[in-house]
From TrEMBL:
Name assigned to this protein: ATP-grasp domain-containing protein
GO molecular function, one term: ribosomal S6-glutamic acid ligase activity
Organism: Candidatus Woesebacteria bacterium RIFCSPHIGHO2_01_FULL_44_21
Residue stretches making up the ATP-grasp domain: 106-296
InterPro entries with a match to the protein in the record: ATP-grasp, ATP-grasp_RimK-type
BP-aspect Gene Ontology terms: SOS response
Keywords: ATP-binding, Nucleotide-binding
Any single GO CC term annotated in Swiss-Prot or TrEMBL for this entry: cytoplasm
Coiled coil regions in record: none
Residue ranges of the TM segments: none
């Protein structure tokens, strides 16, 4: 039996288990939740340091602490792979739904094969080492809190995410946030001038709105129009519905990028509580009424 024990803080707090495992001749690995990582790719895999968590037969959460997002990722992964989890409450209780945790939401999208910008999840230390090599420069850093795109940064310098003698600038800001329990993931910088918010209700597209992207001026100086897309492509609508299903949602606003050069569509997130104000403005629909009618008809 291969056992994995997690601590919410430094792994040295698990030294007693390491010594006991040697004495009992038990195959044991210990890890901190800060070592939990994943990357987008053909197959979703969750790691604790260098170890694929799927390789273990039992996982024990010694202490979770502020690492609730990481614990949620591990608990979901353990359930998917039939790994026993201790304590039992982590099996029967929902730790943190993907509607709150962007880390869990993104993991679901990757697992379902939804096309996305290349994505890496992990500690700031891990991202500072891996992201420049895997994603190139510049790349995007996002917090997992999903606060209406306010916690999104562009990284142009390898040293921006590493400690300096004075710890000034972006590193200091993000490190303080990480100490408070906030987690981050990195994504490749996609040259897409427009972002499309596709509103999905009960498996149907209600409306699609277009908005110029935040850093488009880096590669496109044209003035771009925003507003209602009168005839969105079926490909975009189908992708939004697939992303909504993958995230386990009935009502969502799916953000999709369209790559300028290739026309490729990439999902960047599926929002569980999108604002409907612009939909009502452009379509004249009363979305509160539409949602209530959906709820009555389906639940």
């Amino acid at each position: 039996m291969k056992i994995l024990i997690f601590a919410g803080g430094p792994v040295r707090k698990l030294d007693a288990f390491v010594e006991a495992a040697k004495k009992l001749n038990i195959e044991l690995t210990v890890a901190s939740f800060s070592e939990v990582t994943y990357e987008s790719g053909d197959k979703y895999r969750l790691f604790a340091g260098e170890h694929d968590i799927a390789d273990f037969s039992l996982i024990y959460f010694r202490v979770v602490g502020k690492r609730i997002e990481d614990a949620t990722l591990v608990a979901n992964y353990a359930k998917e792979h039939g790994i026993r989890l201790v304590d039992k409450l982590y099996v029967s209780s929902l730790l943190l739904p993907s509607s709150i945790s962007k880390a869990a939401e993104t993991a679901k999208l990757i697992s379902a094969g939804i096309p996305m910008p290349k994505t890496i999840y992990g500690s700031l230390e891990y991202l500072s080492k891996v992201a420049p090599q895997e994603l190139g420069l510049p790349f995007i850093i996002k917090s997992t809190t999903g606060k209406k795109a306010r916690e999104v940064w562009i990284v142009e310098d390898v040293g921006a995410l590493r400690a300096t003698p004075l710890q000034e600038g972006l590193y200091s800001e993000l490190r303080d946030m990480e100490k408070a329990g906030i987690r981050f993931f990195a994504q490749e910088f996609v040259k897409a001038s427009m972002r499309y918010r596709v509103f999905v209700l009960g498996g149907e597209v209600v409306a699609t709105l277009a908005q110029p992207t935040k850093w488009r001026k880096r590669f496109n100086q044209d003035e771009l129009e925003k507003g209602l897309v009168s005839q969105p492509t079926s490909e975009m609508g189908d992708l939004a519905i697939r992303a909504t299903d993958a995230a386990g949602l009935d009502i969502s606003g799916v953000d999709i990028l369209k790559v300028d050069e290739t026309g490729e569509l990439m999902v960047i997130e599926a929002n569980a509580a999108p604002s409907w104000k612009l939909v009502e403005k452009y379509t004249g629909k009363n979305m509160a009424e539409e949602i209530l009618k959906f709820l009555i008809s389906n639940y």
